[in-house]
Amino acid sequence: MPLAAPRQFHRSTTLTRRKSLTGLFGALVLIAAVACSSSTGSETPIDVGTAPGPSTTTTALTGQDASPAIAVSGGGVGDDVIGDVPSNIDEPATSLDTADEVVAAFETVVSRVFAESLPSVVEISVQTASGGASGSGFVWDDDNHVVTNQHVIDGAQRIEVSFADGRSYAATVLGEDADADVAILDVDTNDRLAPIKLGDSDSVVPGQLAIAIGNPFGEEFTLTQGIVSAVGRSIRSGSQGFTTPDVIQTDAAINPGNSGGPLLNRQGEVIGINAQIRNDSPQNSGVGFAVPINIAKLVAPDLIDSGEFVYSWLGVSGHDVSRVLVAALDLPDGTQGAYISDVIADGPAQQAGLNETTRTIRVEGQPVDVGGDTVVGIDGTPIRSMADLISYLTNSTRPGDVVTLDILEDGGKQVQKQIELGVRP
pLDDT tens across 5-16, in order? Predict the structure, then answer.
């Protein structure tokens, strides 16, 4: 199914301006139910930071790190055990009053995150040669920089950012990175804008609360909430041939106009930049994707200083190792890694002697491309998938670095190959 960037085109002069706080009901019912129990791939080819190719996200109630536990009858269990297996599952359900208190606490957390974050969130209105568009963003630092998705401002001739209190300012693009789908705007004002709190996307795990704030369908400063559905996804931005790693998947409603807005945790820290939805139509289906905030932290300083971020380049494309491929390559049972199907001519990998697919055979009635190398480690770090390789290259290397790859060649021979990384074209 295609990935669609939820960019919203609309005529702002004809829209009814509304501010809404939505999306709580489902999660409230879930938490109430927990309180009543006395307890709180298929294989897809991916281009590796290499050469362009075809396109194939309840504890703190006060905003602080620690908060008082929520009293629950029958044991004084706090909110830190939400999701644990109840030890007293056969005991009678707790009182309705206790359930109401838990639901009220949840509402307090979500409302606090919204209220504290709202002064830092912006609606972005863009004029392009083909018309108008809108998206979302948030204040990045004390120098009046705003972060959004690159696809929100792509081709912009005029940009305006607006705050929930009615302030509006002109803005210009300071730097953009289409591969990570991140852009930095410079806001034209002497006013002091309020930066949002930044979190750590590496610490995010499925099941955590996820809160999105943005401007879906032009409905400004709308809140939706859900959970982090998965981590470690990979997406491409638009027509780019390169892949963004470590992406956060969420079921918090993401729709056209949410692009560039923050995905927040329960502490009100940004863990991701809402970027894409997966659906046959450009509307929410419960599968949304956010660029991890740590990617933005990586690229933003260079975008601010020089207008671009330069990625290291290995010069290969490939995919995960499947069970059938393990058999076809005669690799040890259970081998995991990144299979190199194509080596780019004159790239770093070719110069280092990495092997690509040379022939196709049939295994269990399936055609399988064989002959290429399988990367199982890089600089001592295990590589279990193509996503692992992309993530390491993006987060831990820069052009000119020399890396050591642990390779299993066709037939199972183990070798090491050193490669000097180039600049992503």
Answer: 554 434 333 333
